Amino acid sequence: MNYKEVFQKSVDQPEQFWLDEAKNIKWFKEPKVALEQTDEGIFHWFPDGETNLSYLCIDQHIEAGHGDEVAVIYDSAVRQKQIKYTYKQVHEKVSKLAGGLQAMGVEKGDRVIIYMPMISHSLFSMLACARIGAIHSVVFGGFAPDELAMRIDDAKPKVIITATSGIEVDRLIAYKPMVDEAIEKSQHEVEKVIVFNRKLGVEFEEKPYDVDYVELVENSKSIEPVA
């Protein structure tokens, strides 16, 4: 089937087209409905299907025998540093962070704000949230406390995941102090702040709600993805 035929099928038989395409990914429960519209006019794709994006990004590749292949290449032009992670390594980091979040009481449907620089741990955090069915809200790292506070009150997260600092060309941006200020300014009470210490010389005050990212991952159990 050529492109024009594929495209025409998607126009003429959209429901069947997308159900056929959906067979190309793994489901815990395969969908029978492609698209459903609520009374409010909101569309839901594959409403009766069940899967997990963390599973699709990591576990299924390990099951297919690709666990020792490179899954992620972190390449920092700022720090002149490159790190390669295999699927098995990503699985360990993501599944144990997910276990740590779950132990904190983060459940399916809860929100987590991710306020981090462009480092591997940002990706691990997103996949960890997806693994337990939590909704992650990525707030641009370096946003001022006022802007972050607005997003805290809007999303009402149980947890914020952050880093001690980011690097912008040749200067350090202290993230953790801005998170603390945003929490003071917001009405919503955040239960925990998971802090990845990059050890780049940024001073910050430890708060009662702080949890060390590395220690959390090291001491948490690896968990399976939820549907």
How would you describe this protein?
- This protein starts with a helix and ends in an 8-residue tail after the last helix.
- It has a 5-stranded parallel β-sheet with strand order 6-5-7-10-11, sandwiched between helices.
- It contains 8 helices and 11 strands.
- It has 227 residues and is α/β, with parallel strands linked by helices.
Indicate the low-confidence ranges by residue numbers: none
The percentage of residues in β strands lies in 15-25%
Number of helices: 8
Summarize model confidence as the mean pLDDT.
95
Summarize the helices and strands and which ones pair or pack.
Blueprint: H1 3-12, H2 14-22, E1 35-37, E2 43-45, H3 53-63, E3 70-76, E4 81-86, H4 87-103, E5 111-115, H5 120-132, E6 135-138, H6 145-155, E7 159-163, E8 165-168, E9 171-174, H7 175-185, E10 192-196, E11 210-212, H8 213-219
Parallel strand pairs: 5-6, 5-7, 7-10, 10-11
Antiparallel strand pairs: 1-2, 3-4, 8-9
Keywords:
11 strands, 5-stranded parallel β-sheet, alpha/beta, two-stranded antiparallel sheet, single chain, 227 residues
The gist of it:
The protein has eight helices and eleven strands. It has helices at residues 3-12, 14-22, 53-63, 87-103, 120-132, 145-155, 175-185, 213-219; strands spanning 35-37, 43-45, 70-76, 81-86, 111-115, 135-138, 159-163, 165-168, 171-174, 192-196, 210-212.
